[in-house]
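pinging the channel bc i need a second pair of eyes. not urgent but kinda urgent?? the chain im working w is below, pasted from the shared doc
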Amino acid sequence: MTQPIKSKDRDAIIQALNAGVVPRLGLRHIQVGRAREVAALVSDVERVSDAGSAFRVVVGEYGAGKTFFLNLVRLVALEKGLVVVHADLAPDRRLHASGGQARSLYAELMRSMATRTRPEGGALASVVERFVGKAHDDAVRQGRATPDLIREKLAPLEELVSGYDVSAVITEYARASDAGDDARKLAALRWLRGEWSTRTDARAALGVVRTIIDDAGVYDHLKLMAAFVRLAGYKGMLVVLDEMVNLYKLQSAQARAANYEQILRILNDVLQGSAAGLGVVMGGTPEFLMDTRRGLYSYAALQSRLAENSFARSGLVDLSGPVIRLQSLTPEDLYVLLANIRTVFAGGDPARHLVPDDALTAFMHHCSTRIGDAYFRTPRNTVKAFVNLLSVLEQNPGSRWTDLLDEMPVVVDETAAQDAAADGSSIDVGNQDPDGLSPDRKPADATAGSDADDDLASFRL
């Protein structure tokens, strides 16, 4: 029997799908297919929970469901007792930079920190409070001073790069908590989130720090935070980085190489077991991974480490390597997805379905005749059109789905087409602005020769 769906989950799913984005709540109600890929990531999460580490690059076409898959893994990690941080890369958020972009990425990751009890994010303060509260209880039970016990518990952090300052800031937070000094508590949290831009300001606010979190120390502080959350009683930390294609779009070859060097460092640390309790999952397109001029494969050390199993051919799959390639949904998967969306609209009650089963097959046939196989291979716009159809039927009780279907517009995912063009699959591969994004349909001769890094800047397929 179908379980009722909470009104909050129902509304969140419908609003997100109607806007063409992935819902943060209720993913279990619409998840279909990819059981083996999900099982592989669940295995990674369990390994991180057991003081291990994991690294994955999730690759899939635009609109194929990468973000949905990453959000699903995020929810699994929360249920397993991990702390999860998540961010999308952008022109102003990178793994390596010299103008504050890497620190901006770190700040976004810390702001998004989520736990099982705070799945919406903003959980850094509660994680620190949990550590301090537990230390205080232990100190009372042992008859010791709380600051002394906190320093003892934080001693393992001081063996890591920048660990002394992290330990000092958390200790200062505990002192401010005892004294009821909210301003200093906020200053300490701002330091841990990487929001101080100068050492002078941070020292004036806290008085115990010699450094701040800057572009050069982002990964070191991620390892520190993974170690700290384990001291606070969590099982580890999962870092989810989406839209990695923004590194592929960078104009400068030097900037790309520096960011790929950071990815190599993370991969080596994690796979060699030097980052206990840390999992890293990155999402990107096939071009981001396999392009030998601009993608990860352009960096020889990464290409050798991320190369796929040569025996995994002719339908054979190997999910033990660092790369997981998301397979396209099948028409059968999409049918189940549409049925799940229909159930969400009905709040889990089959008696309230807005359309019969025949409508699902008729809708799929309609999409197939309009845009071909893209309707199930990159189903973002297909799902959005179906949600629009159900919304009209829900708000207009006298309408009939058979009358609406022929008028229902379904188009190829324009976002996917534009992004693919920006990646160089169909238009100018070097036609990018200094921030790394392709401008809107500039003519080839307007930018030919502008990319000193790319001798094929004006090439078109």
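so The chain is about 50% helix and 5% strand. and The chain has a mean pLDDT of 84. — does that match what u expected or am i reading it wrong
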